[in-house]
Amino acid sequence: MTAITDMVDLETRDAVAVVSVDNPPVNALSAGVRTGLYEAVTRADADDAVKAVLIICKGRTFIAGADIREFGKPPKGTPGPKVQAAIEGASKPVISAIHGTALGGGLETALCCHYRVAVSSAQFGLPEVKLGLLPGGGGTQRLPRVVGVQKSLEMMISGDRVDADFALACGLIDEIVDDLMEGGLAFAKKVADEGRPLVKVRDATGKIEEARKDPELFATFRKSIARKTRGFEAPEDIVQCVEDAVSKSFDEGIQGERERFVGLVSGQQSAAQRYYFFAERQANKIPNLPKDLALIPVNTVGIIGAGTMGGGIAMNFLNAGISVIIVETAQEALDRGLAVVSKNYERSASRGRITMDDVEQRMAKLTPTLNMEDISSCDLVVEAVFENMDLKKEIFTRLDSFMKEGAILASNTSALNLNEIASVTKRPEMVIGHHYFSPANVMKLLEVVRGDKTSDAVLATTMALSKKIGKVAAVSGVCPGFIGNRMLAQRGVQAQKMIFEGPMPWDVDDVLYDFGFPMGPFAMGDLAGLDIGWDKSKSRGETVRDRLCEMDRRGQKTGAGYYNYDSQTRAKSPEPMVEELIKEFSEKIGKARREFSKEEILQRCIYPMINEGAKILEEGMSYRPSDIDVVWVNGYGWPVYRGGPMFYADSIGLDNVMARLKEFQKQDGDDFWEPAALINKLVTEGKGFKDIT
Length: 693
Ligand code: 3HC
Known about the structure:
The chain is α/β, with parallel strands linked by helices. The protein folds into three domains: 2-265, Alpha-Beta Complex (2-enoyl-CoA Hydratase, Chain A, domain 1); 300-483, NAD(P)-binding Rossmann-like Domain (Rossmann fold); 502-588, N-(1-d-carboxylethyl)-l-norvaline Dehydrogenase, domain 2 (Orthogonal Bundle), CATH 1.10.1040. The two termini are 42 Å apart. 3-hydroxybutanoyl-coenzyme A is lined by residues 25-26, 28, 64-69, 101, 103-105, 108, 127-128, 131, 133, 135-137, 139, 278, 281.
């Protein structure tokens, strides 16, 4: 065996040159891999004793894409196009043998090979869109030629993967092999011995011609993705590249792809999304844990409360094959909860996301009970009852009396003091917060709340478990509202204040929607119900919300709130009476109304969040700024192409944020705007949140 670079080896086995890539953990297409591939393939091609070339990867996966850390840095190693040209233009068959995930530049490399084989568990995809990019290694031109234009668009816009069966059926791979190396070698020898042609995907025209027959294809596709891709730049660029694939020559298509890729990779959206990719992975890491820390096995979970939240939480565990016992106080509530879970699963099955067998298997792992003590031997309990401290304390006191030793006791509180909840038990080290977001089976975020006494093992187990159940976890310390709701509250304060000074609720909502949020605070209030926490018997019309609820405008559920809602389409429209009501309040509190620019509305909403985020860091309630961003992107709809509030603050300059906070402070005469000490410090040192390590 010859080491070509420290990441690529070459050896000849039975007249097949085996080019092995070894760049853990995911065999990213780093400079050393590119150079190694180029040198090895060129050398093998020139070697008369070699009849075929097999590209294979060591470790857990085939090449999982370009090395994301290399973007934005000066180019090193052999350029990608040169590597691809060497593979595609080789004079003898080049075959890739795929296992794990062939993603991005990895799949694009494989698409330059003349043949591809894979093990049955392999997956294939072009997920560049998730990084604010398009497949820049020929993927936009080659994939449509193999899987068809429509399917390639779906794959590249969603970033989703396809499995080996699909890949075989559409010709993305040529054979499924049992053993990666032996199967790959046997296939390579067969191709060489039979003198099969050197198939170049770039020359395939069938699927392109088929697409030309449908003049509406792109318009229809654009319409179908408009809502999901709103605000993102990369999807439209991808569609344009594929349009080129259909209407132009391969080389012109590649040229267009290259130009658009360069535009995206140097843009702000991709920088934000690449930052976010690493932020999410970093958030799962707990600093200073002992290396040999043993995790607590979690095979059974007890859930207290079968309401919307409890049911949704249960689904996460059931989906991961973990048994759940769900507890309610009344049979009717229990039946209702189970029916909702079952209906959710059936809906997923009807949409083809899971099979009816899956539904049965998952429901079979769900045991309902009215007796809380039935969960006594569970490894983890998640309490998901009404947000009331006395009730939570009562439940944790009971849990402490009968739960087995070593069980993790989690509360799904969204804002209450976890330390106080833990204090009623004799085992506060086993208590932790699991703040799920509604709908809990859909929303990705798990805000993990670390109590003052929560043990390392409980925390580390929770982080590992979050991955298993498909959640993105970030840790918060104990403070009112934790990371997410604490910052949201600051935005809410300003949104409410602003409507008495000039903008109407829809003006505020529109600005936040245009920024990229799915909705603004007033639309969100209408959606959640304005009467949450409102008491009719005590309501004295002192706030706009009181007045709206008193008029039975309680939000979407009553067809009206801040907005009116169309009974058929649920489309919202502003209500003149609400406008009058707000103006009346302005007058009552003596606020002169004035014009606000969109920029000012945005700053009034976002800058208090940034300031609060800084305070959260200052107090040690978050390990790192990027964890805050993870909470906001996954739990509150912050547009990922803006990275998160802390990344956004850096991108506009922390000095600018601080200057504006001070202006608002002067204008308002309110300490609310006092810049956090951390912001002061960072600005003085000429640093940003990114410099906090
Ligand atoms: N570049 C650099 N580092 C990468 C990487 C990449 N493409 N992919 C993963 N990593 C790193 C992660 O940051 C992580 O590092 P850490 O251990 O220090 O935190 C480590 O590899 C393991 O990654 P995961 O924790 O995500 O491991 P999983 O097993 O859960 O998932 C994976 C593996 C499915 C490969 C997942 O990492 C993934 O989706 N990676 C990104 C794939 C991708 O986006 N490819 C396209 C890149 S862009 C491109 O190819 C452009 C081209 O078209 C020109």
